[in-house]
What does this fold into?
Amino acid sequence: MTTWPALGRRTFLLCAGAIGVVLALSVVAALVWEDAAWLLGALLLVSTGVSVVLAKSGHNALQLMRESLPTPVQAPAPTQVVPPTGLSYAPGEPLDMLRRDIQRDVSALLSLHALLPVTGSMPAPGGWAATPETLLVLVSRILAAPRIDTVVECGSGTSTAWIALAIKKRGEGRLISLEHDQNYADSTRLKLEELGLDGWVEIRVHDLVLQPFEARSRLWFPSEALADIGPVSLLFVDGPPAHLGAEIRYPALPLLTDRLTPDAWVILDDIDRAEEQSILARWVADGTGAAPFQVRFQTDRAAVLERAR
Ligand SMILES: C[S@@+](CC[C@H](N)C(=O)[O-])C[C@H]1O[C@@H](n2cnc3c(N)ncnc32)[C@H](O)[C@@H]1O
It folds into this structure.
């Protein structure tokens, strides 16, 4: 489309000249042919031309003004946050799962330290040791159970310190920790002394021995390790380590079931492994003692059992 300029000085003079010429010619024609229609025709032509020029010029002036206005600023398109590694935090992706684990651990550790103020440095949780969530369940049960007699633990370490701390705060009960490895027993004892908790714990160190158990031979702590234990309010099974034998932790519940109080909790760690899943299934199916055991709930890595009611 042709765009006319806004009515400038030059255009105005040209238009005015053209109007003047048309009018002069119409006057001459009217005089020569003695007919005023020439004059009327010229006036009609001139007014039409002037109207068109003014209308177009006004339109163009508005357009020029509009074009001179600043262009509106466009909001930038939202960009997705991509970590520098290129890995994704999308739900279910490895980074997302890791972040959830860390959040669970931090939350449980904060709760543990709120429940039991610690003056020294506690041994690290996780890895070989119980996870913060499992430690929190152990500690909470000791603090909240109607009564705490003996707590038995299979496998010493970080859990020993937290259980002892909870028993000390409660002011009743004691912990018997069964350990087959002298080195781990020694380092746990040192930690307990450093934290002023050694008076609440007895670590019993015994080599595992092959003994007849349910029509076969199994490695387990010798009978004297369990001789004078009872009644047991809480049993935590986190040892012996799996590499020492298939389903090596299985005897813990059958051998201690008659010492457990009616409302005792039994906690089996490492149920993320097939072997512990199998032990758990057998414990539930065995129906050891007067009442069978059932899973009450699970932590991130442990199952909590109690007698079926
Ligand atoms: C799973 S750990 C017991 C951990 C303990 N209940 C805790 O929460 O720290 C089972 C046994 O493994 C052995 N153990 C502990 N820490 C270990 C490590 N870092 N490497 C190899 N064996 C370890 C000890 O003999 C322990 O009794």
Remarks:
- Strands lie at 150-154, 174-179, 201-205, 209-213, 216-220, 232-237, 260-268, 293-298, 303-307.
- Residues 9-63 form one domain.
- The mean pLDDT is 89.
- The pocket of S-adenosylmethionine is lined by residues 128-130, 155-159, 179, 181, 184, 238-239, 241 (CB under 6 Å).
